[in-house]
Write a structure and sequence with these properties.
Elements: H1 14-28, H2 36-49, H3 55-64, H4 69-78, H5 89-99, E1 111-117, H6 123-137, E2 144-151, H7 154-162, E3 164-166, H8 175-181, E4 182-184, E5 190-193, H9 195-198, E6 201-205, E7 218-223, H10 232-245, E8 246-254, E9 268-271, E10 274-276
Parallel strand pairs: 1-2, 1-7, 2-6, 7-8
Antiparallel strand pairs: 3-5, 4-5, 8-10, 9-10
């Protein structure tokens, strides 16, 4: 993040940074230990807005804030929400070519359920919904499907729930999907996800390291490019949680830089970044 012209970077003392590391790691599993300058840059505008206060003072005010607004701001500033439609397309190819054709009507399956853990601003969820609907439109058999996307960032979830994105994000979306499932605004600057796709997806706020009320069992779980921000202990806890959230035989997709050991004690290795319970 670049500072505005003339802005002064408010530096963290070692004590303040240690306090921030401890808080983010303990509450959310996020490891900031090697990201001091990044954290300073991302928090600078907020500290300036509040009268050039120190990070220590911000943390003190946050502890006293019963509305949790300051905590929400901290998370929105310090978490990375970079994503886009059709990111890491090999996962979507695997879903369409290997998983979906093996779902047979005679199994009596009444639903196909997906959880996107760390869904950010929703592009991953909507990509999945368009893929599944297109598979059905093309004659593939699939029961009723639903997708739940969870994230810790209220700011990212607000974008996801709105379902409106800048037109530049059309770049990776197949032309047929654009025609069937999206609508571009009159100004040509943004597009909306169509109702038929949006009704298949719901979003909710979730801290992946905390007990989750109402978390069901899923046929497919995606947790991609999330664990790279976690410390080792938190990654282990998260992997166990993802395992419990999968139905027997269900699949887990992780980011291509987050590979589990091939002899993992819980998951069977299928192919790079794809595992099975």
């Amino acid at each position: 993040m670049r500072l505005s012209e003339g802005a002064r970077l408010i530096r963290f003392t070692n004590e303040e940074f240690t306090q921030l590391i401890t808080y983010m790691s303990g509450q959310y599993g996020i490891d900031l230990s090697k990201k001091k300058i990044l954290a300073e840059c991302r928090m600078n505008g907020e500290l300036e807005k509040r009268g050039n206060i120190s990070m220590g003072e911000y943390m003190r005010q946050m502890e006293m804030d019963m509305t949790k607004q300051l905590e929400s701001i901290l998370l929105n500033r310090l978490t990375t929400n970079y994503t886009y439609f059709m990111r890491e397309p090999k996962h979507f190819d695997f879903l369409r070519e290997k998983i979906l054709p093996n779902i047979k009507p005679e199994w009596g399956r009444i639903s196909f359920q997906i959880w996107c853990a760390g869904c950010s601003s929703g592009e991953e969820c909507y990509t999945l919904a368009m893929l599944l609907q297109d598979y059905k439109d093309q004659g593939g058999w699939l029961p009723s499907f639903s997708i739940v996307g969870t994230d810790i960032s209220e700011q990212a979830l607000a974008v996801a729930q709105k379902g409106r994105y800048p037109v530049r994000e059309l770049e990776n979306i197949p032309a047929l999907w654009q025609k069937k499932y999206l609508s571009i605004d009159e100004a040509g600057t943004s597009f909306d996800i169509g109702h038929a796709i949006r009704e298949k997806v719901r979003f909710q706020r979730m801290n992946l390291l905390k007990p989750s009320v109402g978390l069901g069992q899923y046929d497919l779980v995606l947790c991609r490019n999330v664990m790279i921000y976690f410390n080792e202990e938190s990654r282990k806890k998260l992997i166990e949680k993802l395992y419990r959230a999968l139905k027997p035989g269900g699949y887990l997709f992780v980011g291509h830089t987050e590979l589990l050991p091939r002899n993992h004690e819980l998951f069977e290795y299928v192919c790079p970044a794809v595992y099975r319970k």
